[in-house]
Each structure stands twice: as structure tokens, then as C-alpha cells.
């Protein structure tokens, strides 16, 4: 069912403050009136958009509506006159008359109104009054029975010929088109309104609309990197794994302290950050890294990750060896990795396995490590 959207936006909006007429003030990066027009432009049944504007606001209007297929007509001294001007310019069988200061009209509400027009010459959205009501009476208040009371909203929808006839029958001004239609004897069906379909009237309404219209924050992006490292072992005076020195008759052979656990995790962090690998940053040919504590490599990788917007979420390391036994040192390793990464120990996992006497690790010729690192980009 095609329809004309008639938007009333000829007022000055002084109650909203801010200097600029409220319909041209920005909300979530767009002028208020543009949000309203776009809500109709998205509906498949909207054939045209006609907007009543104040003649002094032409420049504001053209700037706000740039690129949108809308037409402007000169508004009148009151709402009824502005709607009359829009009606005179409308070309379709059904019209939806809307406040320019209601930017959150939903597609489902428009659909309900169009459906109601199939059996009634007019339809309007309404919400039941739920708050207690009183009328101020001198120095006191008098309770008002709210039974049957409804809060009217726009758009108010009509068969174009019926509402035109109602306008032609009167010169009086009305607060809305339902009032005018009922004065002319037109039946108006009520459909369920929408709480979000607020009218921007007061300064605080802008903040509320901003919250409703601002795009939802992008969900955090999760990134993962993996790392693998291996070093030979030889008889020695102990070795360091995952930042913990273990007294043992073997030692790891490497240019630095050869901590395969931290090396694998460093590579995993660099992978999550898209920052290459450990060899690029700490080449084994560089004498300054001879015997270096591998914690330096890990801290540098974390710095690069944070510069790339990656915050640590979880670290998982698997040590592959026949000896030493990892179990007695597991908790100390978790604490050390947690300390280096800034993660709580519960988000650090250290595992150990053997290769069932197969390969170089099974023969006790070396120790390998695999690592996975998870980070979050907000």
C-alpha cells in the first residue's frame, strides 16, 4: 500500500533550547529531521516525502536533507496550516502525517497504521496512560481517573480524500489531525504505539534520543596467535621453563636462556598482533641477546600487541618433554606467566606431555613447546 509521508517541521522548537531550530540540531551525527525522513524513506510503501518547513529555514533544510528524495513546502502559522500545505502537495491515496521531531518511528508501527486503513478512514498510534494523574486546583491537586485515557502519537494515517474533506470543512486550528478528523465525523482506529517513538521537546530529550539512535558499539574482536619452539638439551646445571628455573642435570641450548615455553608464547602473542615472529625482533645472530632472560622477549611482544590494540585474555602453553617433570613446577610457572602478561592466574594454563619415546623429545634430545594466545581488540 503506497503512501505519502507528510512531515511537519515548520516550528522554531524554542523549548528544546540550543539556538538552532531543534529539527536541525544533530543527534548521533545527523540532524533530527533527517533521522525522521530516513525512517520513512526506508519503508517500502513510502512513495514520497513532503515536509512543511519555515521559509526562513530553507538553508538548514537543504543542508540537512542533502541526497534525500524529499520535497519542501512552506509551512503555516500553526500545525493545521502546515498539514494543509502538505496535503495540497500529496499525490497518493494514503497519507501518514508525522511530527518532524519524532525521529524513532518504526517500520512495524507504519505497517500497523496502513493495515488499519484497510477498514477505517483514519488510524493513529496510542499508548495507555500508566502513571497516576492529577489536576492542579488552586493550592492543591485533584485526582484524575486515568481509565480509558491514551497518549496519542504520530504518524496519524488517513485516506487522503477523507482527511482532505475534513480540512475543507473547517478553518479552525486543531492540536492534531485526529482531533480535526473526529470533529468532521471521521472514524479513527487506534493502533498500538511505541514507547521509543518519543517527541523531542525538551533539552533532556536530545540525550535520550542520542542513546536510542547512536550506533551500538562494535563487539570486541577476538584474535588468536599460536607459537612453537624447540631447543636441544645437554648435560648442565639446570634449565628455565616458562620463567621458572628448575634444578636439573640438563640445560637447554640456545642463544638466550632458551626458555621454549616463553619463546612459544612470545611467538603466539606476536601472531595475534600481526607483528611477525620472535626471530625478526630478537635474531639469534645478535650478540646482545646472548644468555638473555626470555621474559624480555615476552614483555616486548606484549608492548607491540597493546600498541596494536590487543589486550591479553588467555594464554595456554604445552611443554613436550620426557624430563624434567613439569607437575611440581606447574603452579610456579602459571604465576610467573600471569605476572609477565598481567593476566590473572586462572587465565593462564600450563600443560605438559611426552611424545611416548618417539622423536627427538622422546629420545631426550630436546624440549619443545606449543602456545596459544587469545587477545581482545575493543
Descriptive report:
- Helix 11 links the parallel strand 17 and strand 18.
- The protein is built from twelve helices and 19 strands.
- Helix 8 (260-273) packs parallel to helix 10.
- The longest helix is centred in the last third of the chain and has 14 residues, at 260-273.
- The protein is of the alpha/beta class and 378 residues long.
- It has two domains: 3-213, Spore Coat Polysaccharide Biosynthesis Protein SpsA, Chain A, CATH 3.90.550.10; 221-377, 2-Layer Sandwich (60s Ribosomal Protein L30, Chain: A).
- Strands 1, 4, 5, 6, 7, 10, 11 and 12 form an eight-stranded mixed β-sheet that branches. A five-stranded mixed β-sheet has the order 16-13-19-17-18.
Topology:
Elements: E1 3-9, E2 26-27, E3 30-31, H1 32-41, E4 46-53, H2 58-64, E5 71-74, H3 79-89, E6 94-99, H4 107-116, E7 122-128, E8 133-137, E9 140-144, E10 150-152, E11 156-159, H5 160-168, H6 177-183, E12 188-192, H7 203-213, E13 221-235, E14 239-241, E15 244-246, E16 250-252, H8 260-273, H9 278-281, H10 295-307, E17 310-320, H11 330-341, E18 348-353, H12 359-362, E19 366-377
Parallel strand pairs: 1-4, 1-6, 4-5, 7-12, 17-18
Antiparallel strand pairs: 2-3, 6-11, 7-10, 7-11, 8-9, 13-16, 13-19, 14-15, 17-19
What's this, in brief?
This protein has 12 helices and 19 strands. With 378 residues, the protein is an alpha/beta fold.
